[in-house]
């Protein structure tokens, strides 16, 4: 594994892209349905320590983006063959094949609704696809 193939500017950009997707996903697209599904109100969300939540989310998503970059460009051969389309494809497979179904299994045991699983799993599918596109393009 050669970390010199990783474009860390792309990794940080990919990390930040998850916040843009999250703003849309948990805001205008599915925000009201998500709040109802998890049993939160806007008042309860406003009481949260947002610095802590966003700070930790950035660190966790940065770790995920670095891991995806290692999978996509961790060897010279992989880095030479990587494209935006291929990165998006592998990002989608990561989000759908691993994260979505990991959340689904957990959701089943926690007796979560399919709405909960689809909203959160769908976010990660879109987020990882975009991260893969960004990392693969650079």
UniProtKB/TrEMBL annotation:
The chain crosses the membrane at residues 6-26, 53-75, 87-109, 116-135. Keywords: Membrane, Transmembrane, Transmembrane helix. The keyword Transmembrane helix applies. Pfam families: DUF1761 (PF08570). InterPro entries: DUF1761. It comes from the Bacteria. This is DUF1761 domain-containing protein. The lineage of its organism: Bacteria, Pseudomonadati, Balneolota, Balneolia, Balneolales.
């Amino acid at each position: 594994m050669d970390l010199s193939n990783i474009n860390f500017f792309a990794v940080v950009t990919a990390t930040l892209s998850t916040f843009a997707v999250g703003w849309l996903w948990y805001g205008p697209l599915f925000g009201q349905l998500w709040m109802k599904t998890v049993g939160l109100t806007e008042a309860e969300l406003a009481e949260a320590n947002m610095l802590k939540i966003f700070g930790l989310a950035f660190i966790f998503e940065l770790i995920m983006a670095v891991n995806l970059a290692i999978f996509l460009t961790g060897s010279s051969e992989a880095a030479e063959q990587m494209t935006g389309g291929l990165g998006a494809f592998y990002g989608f497979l990561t989000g759908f094949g691993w994260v979505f179904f990991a959340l689904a299994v957990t959701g089943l045991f926690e007796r979560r609704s399919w709405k909960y699983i689809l909203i959160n799993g769908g976010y990660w599918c879109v987020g990882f696809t975009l991260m893969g596109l960004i990392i693969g393009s650079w």
